[in-house]
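Throughout this chapter, every protein is written as a compact record of paired, labelled lines. An example of such a record is reproduced below:
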Amino acid sequence: MENDQDLRDRINSLEKRLDDQNDEMVCLRSTLADALRRIGAIESRRGSSPSKEPVHRRLAQSVSSLTDCNTPNSSQIPRDVSRRQSSSANATIAHSRNSNMSRSNGSLVSECPSSSSASPAPSPSPTSRPQHVQFNSLISDIGHGRTRTPNSSMRTSFVSTSNSLQTAKRWSSTSDFVPTNGLISRTRSAVYSSDEGFVKFPFKGRNINLYIPSAQREKYSASQTLPLPEAKLKMEWVYGYRGKDCRSNLHLIPTGELVYCIAAIVVLFDAEEHGQRFYLGHTGDVKCLAIHPNKLLIASGQAAGRDPYEGTPHVRIWNSVSLQTLFVLGQGDFGKSVSCVAFSKADGGSMLLIIDESPDQTLSLWEWQKGERGQRIAETRCSSDLVVAVEWNPVPRERFAFVTSGKGHVCFWSLENGTLGRKLGVFESRDKPKYITCLAFADNGDCITGDSNGSLIIWLKGSNVIQKTIRNAHEGPVFCLLTLKDGRLVSGGGKDGQLVLWDLPSYRRTGYITEIPEKYGNVRVAVQGKGSQILVGTTRNCILRGSFDIPFTPLMVGHTEESTGLCVHPSQSQFLSFGYDGRLQLWDTMSRTIIWGKDIRDPIQSACFSPEGQVLVIASTCGKWFVMDSQTRDIYATHMDGTEPVQVVKFSPNGKMLAIGSKDASIYIYQVLDKYRKYYRVGKCVGHTGFVSQMDWACDNLHLQTNSGDCELLYWNTGVCRQITQPSSMRDMEWSSVTCPIGPTSFGVLSEGSEGTDVNSCCASHSRRLLVSGDDGGRLKLFTYPSSQPKSPCHSYQGHSNISCVCFLSDDTRVLSAGGRDSSIIQWTVESS
């Protein structure tokens, strides 16, 4: 049976290869015929010399010799391809004399006769680069009104190009060049044939033929300008917190709101009212925060964004009540990112200290209120090693104004008349820690540091010499120090997860110790809350609230690694988030709280609900996938398909079939039995040249459409696990979902110049009114559905550093976006304009 199956697969592969080669011949003939038409049009305008044979006739001889010696036997050519070949050249030349052409440049549309329109020629098959260059050179001359006689070497190049077709890379069935003989509408990025009813869309070095549904064919034009969507999105909630790799980014302000950062957003979270506000002025990931002594102004520093101009690292100072930006400091002056910011304390916050995370760890002092962009009054190299903490001395007129620390150093800085002076802290050689991880000043002016050895060091006031060392304060590094309002000190452990209360100035333990639950991570930062409450940001991106008497409970939880995707419950206002941290989290969008969480050992790449929502299929990065009850979280079955990541999984609309799209470019089809408990593989769909990236089931529960990382759109019959090689037959297929960016109703989400991998995800609303997409630049875009026009207009929103997945809730009232590398999830409401 296996040998028979292999033989059938090989025969199918050979048949497909023959069809592809035949269509490549059509491509080449169509390209050359179009060149002849354009040469003829130019000569007809200028007038041909009677004593000299026209260029296009001599070029036609080369075309004739090429097609005569390379046309396959007609008995071996499929009927539709043979028909197209027999009529391609004549139809194209006739079209140049009789048809009208619409051209669009941006949103402007103009009508003009085709004889005066120098339309761009379709790109030839890229089988031989030198010949390709010669042909493009000829077309370039034509486009500039010049004619040039093809020499013998050029004629030879056309023949050699045809001879190399046998070794050329095959084209996708939706990427063939098909000649047209009807009215054509063009833009700079697409050509529409009304007779064939398809759009030829140039994309990533190939032309993709997208067959427009019959309902749109009559009125469709590639140059048509669509209106903006009637709806808009509004940021409603941000799930997650950045504590894994950031310090000093959690604060409490007098309004009772917690201020913290994640992705390119600063969140102001009212835990009592369970509400959020957002500062959205940044264009890159926010890495540090500082609160002004007046508790009203906030400074936030960002890393470099993707935009080369607006995305440069800088610091923004803004009002925490109005969320209005007041000052922007250092735009274009910093390197990789801003790692630390701090307002001065002794003088009421007139200065701002900024650490640039460049190789030199540059330190700069700013009088931030001078001018719109502040005034830098001093700048120096801080250290050759990483700087992780900075703290101003709250006592005025002290010898040292502020202290910085990091890898292998602590520096005490003086500031006199705008001049910075530095003294390195002196350690006993045997006790010198690898990192000085945190800093704090006591009310009496003592400087206290915590280090990677688990020790607390009290430095002699006004000196860079150690006064006292408290060893074994924690098991593992000390990650944070907090001076309470009553003068006592709290230290947080980065390994033992403990908070320890110390008495000052004796620096003795009070006996109060509390421990953070292990599942939430260890202590990263701590701030004093209301009364005796302490708020803790953890290394697993959680925010907790508790005290030495009350256990700590979560206010916010998130993913610790890249959040790879989302899947929405089919009937309830719930969604599942997952990522490379191996954690599943089910959320309720109405209460904006977590329902349950479960840890899976393997990094998770994709997941989906069954049509009724009873079962979840969870797929990993190693080819393994699980079947799990969505309520009890019991695992029913475990399967393995290859060793590559499973990029996408989806049930058919009736729940009787399951498709597994893998990074090995295969789609595995399973039959589902026994109420989602048993799965039997019925076949494997093979034909993509890149990994399977997106997938949609048809409403007939039989057909699939898939996109690949190589920018292909293929259709499949899952009953026989074979590719459908006539995509025109699928133009009116009704799809249960639309998540493939490369598709006849969704290709408008692809921006001009896009490489295909830029758009990571798209999703049409269930009402088929809206389409949302997310890309590598962190842009969330809302389109009108169908989005079948190049450069479709859209509303664009920013917040993520990049987006890995987008989706609508089952009732279309909200949109969800997963931030990929920034580990955030943003919930957006859909509102009428």
